[in-house]
Amino acid sequence: MLDVPPGVQRDFPLARLTTIRTGGPAEYFARPASVAELQHLLTWAAAAGLQVGVVGSGSNLLVADIGVRGLVMKLDKELSTIELDGLAGDRLSCGGGARLPAVAAAAARSGLAGIEFGISIPGTVGGAVRMNANAYGGALADVLEWVEVVSATGVERRTPDRLGFQYRRSNLLDGEVVAYARFRLRPAAEDQVKGTLADLRERRRQAQPSGIKTFGSTFKNPEDPRADGRSAGQLLDAAGCRGLRIGEACFSEKHANFVENLGSATTADVVALMIAGRERVRERFEIELEPEVQGLGPVDFPDDWWRE
Ligand SMILES: Cc1cc2nc3c(=O)[nH]c(=O)nc-3n(C[C@H](O)[C@H](O)[C@H](O)COP(=O)(O)OP(=O)(O)OC[C@H]3O[C@@H](n4cnc5c(N)ncnc54)[C@H](O)[C@@H]3O)c2cc1C
Question: May I ask the CATH architecture of the domain 225-305?
Answer without folding.
Answer: Alpha-Beta Complex (3.90)
